[in-house]
Every structure is written in C-alpha cells, then in structure tokens.
Specification:
Mean pLDDT: 95
Protein name: Nitroreductase
Strand content: 5-15%
Keywords: Flavoprotein, FMN, NADP, Oxidoreductase
Largest sheet: 4 strands, antiparallel
Organism: Shewanella pealeana (strain ATCC 700345 / ANG-SQ1)
CATH class of the largest domain: Alpha Beta
CATH architecture of the largest domain: 3-Layer(aba) Sandwich
Low-confidence stretches: none
Distance between the termini: 48 Å
Number of helices: 11
CATH superfamily of the largest domain: NADH Oxidase
Family: Belongs to the flavin oxidoreductase frp family.
Order of helices and strands: HHEHHEHHEHEHHHH
Structural class: alpha+beta
Oligomer: single chain
Helix content: 40-55%
CATH topology of the largest domain: NADH Oxidase
Shape: globular
Pfam family, one: Nitroreductase
C-alpha cells in the first residue's frame, strides 16, 4: 500500500532530546496548539489545559524536578499538559467531581491532545520528547505552576528543531500487541525474537549503548516502587476520591 506523509510521520517518530538554538516560529507554535486542541474529547467535556512555560527560572526548576533533564531548559518550547476539571467547577460550582472515571477521562483526553501536538510538530520538521518526570514531585510542580485543585499535571513536552536525530526505537511486534477476538497468552517465542532485536538495537547505537533486552528492562522497572505518593497527591488535588 502507498505510504503518505501522515503515515510516514507517525512511523518515523523518535524522541528528540538535543535541539538547536532556533526558536519555533509563532505561527507554527499556534498551529501545533490548534492541532492539540482539535483532539477527540470524551462527551465533549474538553477537560485538558496546556501550560506554556517560557520563564528560564521556572524551566530550570522544572528540569530539576523532572530528574535533571537539561532539555527541559534548552528546548525552544516546554509545554505542560494537564487534566483540568477546575474550569468545569467554575462553570458549575455544584459539579460532581472526584470520580475515578473522570481521572481516566482526563488522562486519556490529555494524552490524545499531546499526541496531536507531537505529530503536528513532527510534520513540520520539529521534534520533541515527552517528560513524565514532572510527576516525580507533582506537588511542587503544581505549586510552581499555580495549579488549583482539580488540575492535574500529567506530562511535559519539549519541542524544538532537532540537533541530533536518533534511530527510531523498535516497538513490540503486532503479533504480541494485537489480540484476535479475546486476550491471548504471551507468545514467548515472539518475545525472544523481539528481545534479540532490542539487544541488537542498543548495541548499534552511536551513544548510550546498553547490553540489555526489553524483558530485562521490564523486570528492572517493575521490581521497584512506581511513585507511591501518587495516590495521595491525586486525592489531594480532588481526583480519584471516589
């Protein structure tokens, strides 16, 4: 089947962490934000907000809170994507908020908005990387960005003109990801092939070489706590209280 520009852009996605000093033109940034805002919205609730951060001092603090990710400071643009039910409460003070379903809706809708923004940016020759590290200390991030109750910072996004373009990272094969009619048990033979593919990919990289498989990474990642403070923070912001 013939490829088109949209499909090529999607399949060539890679995380960009090194940027030139060139700024993003105002009209391009506006178009990226318009594309983000055009994402699907559950029941047309439109429960997402984007915080554009330009102050160097705030960028520096966010980079620190995200685990010392310097590109949060160096990228031409840094956006923080938030689930936001605060505006709904302003419209309807008696709004029934705090339901876990609303947390899921907020996370899904905001992720769709982020993906729209990333694809739009990449289609214009820009690059970017998602920053989940802002959830390392969401309370301080909320204070730094003056986020009120019922607003949840989900992820950041660095955008800019790429200075280095890495190889795309191989994804799991569709034979593992896509299930027919009902959930299928993991195909260990297919997983072994993928692990070998990932090992070869890491060995071939020009920098940050690793000697590990995807399965080894999963064992390491899921053998330790994953931000155990998050539930208390969510509840404190008015999310998932019921």
């Amino acid at each position: 089947m013939t490829m088109n520009h949209t499909i090529e852009t999607i399949l060539q996605h890679r995380s960009i962490r090194h940027f030139t000093e060139q700024q993003i033109e105002a009209e391009k940034l506006k178009l990226i934000l318009r594309c983000a805002n055009a994402a699907s919205s559950s029941s047309f609730i439109q429960c997402s907000s984007i915080i554009r951060v330009t102050l160097p001092s705030v960028r520096a603090k966010l980079a620190e809170l995200a685990g010392g990710q310097a590109y949060v400071e160096s990228a031409a643009e840094f956006l923080v994507f938030c689930a936001d039910f605060n505006r709904h409460q302003q419209i309807h003070p008696a709004a029934q908020l705090g339901f876990t379903e609303q947390t899921l809706i907020g996370a899904v809708d905001t992720a769709l908005m982020g993906q729209n923004a990333m694809l739009a940016a990449e289609s214009m020759g820009l690059g970017g990387v998602y920053i989940g590290g802002i959830r390392n200390d969401p309370k301080l991030v909320s204070e730094l960005l003056a986020l009120p109750r019922h607003v949840l910072p989900l992820f950041g996004m660095c955008l800019g003109y790429p200075a280095k373009i890495p190889q795309p990272k191989p994804r799991l094969p569709l034979s593992i990801v896509v299930h027919q009619e009902s959930y299928q048990s993991l195909d260990n033979a297919e997983l072994e092939k993928y692990d070998q593919h990932i090992q070869a990919y890491y060995a071939s990289r020009s920098s940050n070489n690793k000697q590990t498989s995807w399965s080894d990474q999963i064992r390491a990642t899921l053998s330790k706590e994953s931000r155990p403070f998050m539930q208390a923070y969510l509840n404190g912001q008015g999310f998932s209280t019921k």
